[in-house]
């Protein structure tokens, strides 16, 4: 992590629970808010954040409802609900406009915020997101339901996905410890409720992009196992958002972890364009 210590955890109470976040506080241009994906924590960006801060950017990362250091039990875990948390955090920090980065599940969140509150969003970045994915056929819906049930009742399945599928190429040096921590967290009391809430949320909304007017960037790992044709998904999102597309060659579902340098280069070029 380039020897840069992580900023200390802060908390924000909102209706329904408490959100954990951190903030590097200083930097040029619009602050960058990094949102992790489903069942993950803000530490997903532990290798990317130092590269962005070294380039002079203010970086904020937030744990999602139910995971990390945020409170576990909420009445709504959907990407749309998380969008209200992002706006509450911007208000709390006195930030008028920010660039929002969503990973996987929270790609839908940043699209939602950009459509609902365009005056607050300087740009959005989708990292291996599901936005604008066509509706699944009956077979795929059944497969997804089975996988969701396994995640709720068998946390080791999340470890299997991380170790066997999500990282087809390079892995960060702390990979094993990080995955072990994710799996252990899923076994804590109340986490089944949060996991169930996440796996049932609509992470692939069709049509939300129509309301987005801000600059957008689509970043996709070329070997993302969640999509049969990752580049085709990225092309569809880029067309819907009038966005630029960057493919991270050899990366899986988490390019900010398996190739943080290439991901940082893509984000920094976009941030320069939105300045």
CATH superfamily: Alpha/Beta hydrolase fold, catalytic domain
Shape: globular
- Architecture per CATH nomenclature, i.e. the level-2 architecture: 3-Layer(aba) Sandwich
* CATH level 3 topology: Rossmann fold
The top level CATH class name? Alpha Beta
Uncertain runs: none
Pfam family, one: Abhydrolase_1
Domain AB hydrolase-1: 31-260
Keywords: Hydrolase
InterPro entries: AB_hydrolase_1 (IPR000073), AB_hydrolase_fold (IPR029058), Carboxylesterase_BioH (IPR050228), Epox_hydrolase-like (IPR000639)
In short:
The protein is of the alpha/beta class and 275 residues long.
Plain-language structure description:
It is a single chain. By secondary structure, the protein is of the alpha/beta class. It has one domain (10-274): Alpha/Beta hydrolase fold, catalytic domain (Rossmann fold, 3-Layer(aba) Sandwich). The chain has helices at residues 49-54, 79-93, 107-116, 138-153, 156-166, 175-186, 191-199, 230-241, 255-258, 260-274, and strands at 10-14, 17-23, 28-35, 57-62, 98-103, 121-127, 216-221, 244-248. It has an eight-stranded mixed β-sheet with strand order 1-2-4-3-5-6-7-8, sandwiched between helices. Pfam families: Abhydrolase_1 (PF00561). GO terms for molecular function: hydrolase activity. Residues 31-260 form the AB hydrolase-1 domain.
